[in-house]
Amino acid sequence: MSTLVDSPGSSQITGAKPPARLSLRGLAEILEAQRTPPTLEQLYEWLENTEISREELKPYLGFKEGNYWRHRVCRNESVEMLVLCWRPGHRTPIHDHNGSHGAVLVYDGVLWESNFKFDEKSGLAYQEGREYRSGQVTGAGVPDIHQLGNPDVSGQNLITIHVYAPPLGVLKTYKVGSPEITLYTPDESTV
What is this structure's pTM? Predict the structure, then answer.
């Protein structure tokens, strides 16, 4: 992720500016109204202007052992929103979004992000790492290879809100030091 975006200050959805603070329902309504994939800048703006209550999130909260849990809030052909719940030590595979861009709001906890660069001959190499805390937004343009996770040392659960445009499909996954690229489909049974 780690794509730095200057928020434009106004939305392009039917020429209207979103309300000052969006609830989860308000954000879902804006996303469901999209007929073309919104820009990464729009995703940032919407997530930066949310005020989501724990009560609104309750239907989408659930943690499991072994891996993070994905809970779908809404999806259409242009965009999708997910709530991800992570225990300490949970992380994604190293991946890109295979043509989608996305933004992530850290709702509660600490998110670690590792970014990588890929060379067809030498393979994948670590580039940098960043940490995000509650209320911060990060994003991924196209292309972007990264790994997200809740660090073991955080000692707390992590809740993140993800918006992807267009919706995620098959992702490309990578291994450090390898030029091999494999395909990965996120587990739809958990959404």
Answer: 0.86
pLDDT in tens, 13-39: 444 555 568 999 999 999 999 999 999
* Cα 18 to Cα 5: distance, rounded to the nearest angstrom: 18
Which residue in 114, 74, 101, 97 sits closest to 170, CA to CA? Answer: 97
Residue carrying structure tokens 């043509």: 99
Q: Which sign, positive or negative, has the C-alpha torsion 172, 174, 4, 68?
A: positive
Laid out side by side, the sheet with 110-119 consists of 123-133, 110-119, 145-149, 95-96, 171-174, 181-184
Residues 6+ apart with CB under 8 A from 38: 12, 13, 31, 46, 78, 79, 165
Could you tell me which of 17, 153, 151, 157 has the C-alpha nearest to residue 83? 157
**Candidate CATH numbers 1.10.238.10, 3.40.50.720, 1.20.1560.10, 2.60.120.10; the one for domain 13-190:** 2.60.120.10
- Strand, helix or coil for residue 177: coil
